[in-house]
Amino acid sequence: MSLKNAIWNGLLIAALCIAGFLLYRIFRQYSLEQIAQSVRSIPFPTFCSALLFATASYLCLSCFDFLAIRALGKSLPCRKIALASFISLSLGHNIGFAGLSSGAFRYRYYSRWGLTAEDVAKIILFCGVTVGLGLITLGALALIVNPGDAGRLLRIDPASTRLFGLLALALPVVYAGLAFFIRGRLRLWRWSFQLPRFSIALAQIGVGTINFMLVSACLHQMLSVFGDVAFFRSVTAYVLANSAILATHVPGGLGVLEATVSYAVPQEASIGALIAFRCIYFFIPLALGTALLVVSEVIFRRQSRGADQVTEERAEARSV
């Protein structure tokens, strides 16, 4: 076994161990009776609708990779992009340092399909920019539409909150404008950045914003079971929580998500809502992503052995 394969196998085993540890860590602070009672209090149709919002969010996330690969001028089947995206993000969301952890899994898959390390680095950067654009855009809309709650949390008056929202909304507008007028590399002092085409820049802003709206809708479904909470209150709570998670890099946002949402909507953030949301958006994808990782690795190994066997047979035939 080569050193490269040994390293990748070690990383794979480490990832599986971390996934198992995270499953334990997510639920160890709650008793089984608390978890069961909380989940039972949520109507099944509401749970299913939240699950649909979460599914749609992960589909949006796969669109991030699709747009990135298209911006590179590359082409891969959608099923391969969806597989690499879901496995890397379902595990990356829970492991922490999502850019690095999900990037490692992306490289594992995309390198098999002909992309270089530079290509994967550009995909990671592109997806990170898309996340930032989506979070800023939705956060700006929350400041404008829901200045009361946002102002209370930020301790500023509603007028100033709306002003901050308009200023924040200018950032994605400037990004799209640069992509439209420059149409190439943007140079800032000693740094240069390759801007995407205008259509792709607009798609980044749109898909990034829709993704976070879907996650907020998933959270809203859970919070609304335990209180009358407006949708944009859920948006405000999630934008703040996700910003805190990105800043702290805590695996799965453990504790950070719960604390931030509880602070933003203290009346509705019951243990049932938060456990159910974590289960839907983190636990279920983590379990599915881990299973797909194991299955895909087994398939890849069999294909690799089959290819090696064919190569050996051809070499023997030529020698004869």
Can you describe this structure?
This protein is mainly α. The chain has 12 helices and 2 strands. The radius of gyration is 22 Å and the shape is globular. The mean pLDDT is 81.
Keywords:
mainly alpha; globular; 12 helices; 2 strands; two-stranded antiparallel sheet; 320 residues
Helix count, DSSP H or I runs of 4 or more residues: 12
Distance between the termini: 28 Å
Largest beta sheet, briefly?
2 strands, antiparallel
Overall shape: it is: globular
As a percent range, the share of strand residues is: under 5%
Please tell me how large the radius of gyration is: 22 Å
Spell out the helices and strands N to C: HHHHHHHHEEHHHH
Low-confidence stretches are none
**How is the largest sheet built, in terms of strand order?**
1-2
Number of strands: 2
Helix/strand-derived category reads mainly alpha
Q: Let me know the average pLDDT.
A: 81
Helix content: over 70%
Topology overview:
Blueprint: H1 3-27, H2 32-40, H3 44-71, H4 78-95, H5 98-110, H6 117-145, H7 147-154, H8 158-181, E1 185-188, E2 191-194, H9 198-225, H10 231-248, H11 256-264, H12 271-319
Describe, in short, the structure shown.
The protein is mostly helical and 320 residues long.
